[in-house]
Amino acid sequence: MGDFYGKRLTELLAPLRYPMTMRLEGPDPEYQEQIRRRNRDYRLKLIANGVTAQDLVVEQLRYQAWANEA
Predict the structure, then answer these.
(1) Would you give the DSSP letter of residue 2?
(2) Mean of per-residue pLDDT scores for the chain
């Protein structure tokens, strides 16, 4: 995968980074909520960018050496 496609697909599909905090002792509902929020936001990112990512992969295939063989 070329640099352009690799970087762009990473931008579109990479997991989100969030600073998270958790308690060291006992259950931590706040931490669990942070995980749920991060997972929800990531799913929304994938849904929003999925078609664009698929289009880039298809576009990239046209530039493969084997795709242009007669």
Answers:
(1) -
(2) 90
CB atoms under 10 Å from CB of 13, counted, come to: 15
The C-alpha angle with vertex 35 and arms to 32 and 37, in degrees rounded to 5, equals 110
- What's the rounded Cα separation, in Å, for the pair 26 and 51? 42
Q: What is the 3-state secondary structure (H, E, C) of 3-69?
A: HHHHHHHHHHHCCCCCCCCCCCCCCCHHHHHHHHHHHHHHHHHHHHHHHHHHHHHHHHHCCCHHHHC
Contacts of 26 (CB under 8 A, 6+ apart): none
pTM given for the model: 0.78
| Tokens (6 digits) for 14 | 């990479």
C-alpha dihedral, 43 to 45 to 48 to 53, nearest 10° = -100
